[in-house]
Write a structure and sequence with these properties.
- This protein has 122 residues and is mostly beta strands.
Length: 122
């Protein structure tokens, strides 16, 4: 198994740079109900190695949310991930899921959010 890590590098803009951007992200509103998205996975050289579509559904009970993700990779593989996301302070979040190592951490500012975690990948 490989290990995928999202790191905040020196070249990454500070979240403070987004503080005045609009619309302001309200994570609990954004991740309520059904959502469709798509994405890609890149190797360390930046080469795209996989593409996927994902359908999500989010629910919240106070400051604790559940986000169910259903991935359909273009090579035919499917995957499910269920996040538990907790608002820990103003604009700060933590998250857990079965294939996420330790906890994910998130910080929003204006219309942007940085979500960082380590994950086991086959």
């Amino acid at each position: 198994m490989g290990l995928m890590t999202f790191l905040n590098g020196c070249a990454t803009p500070s979240m403070q740079a987004y503080k005045d951007t609009k619309p302001v992200l309200d994570l609990q509103t954004y991740f309520t109900g059904p959502i469709k998205a798509w994405g890609l996975i890149q190797n360390r050289s930046g080469e795209v190695t996989r593409r996927f579509d994902v359908t999500m559904n989010g629910t919240w009970n106070g400051d604790v949310g559940t986000l169910e993700e259903h991935f359909q990779y273009y090579d035919g593989e499917t995957q499910k991930r269920v996040w538990t996301i907790t608002k820990t302070a103003e604009n700060r979040y933590e998250g857990t899921a079965a294939d996420i190592l330790d906890k994910a951490s998130g910080h929003s500012s204006g219309s942007a959010m940085r979500w960082a975690y380590k994950m086991d990948l086959p």
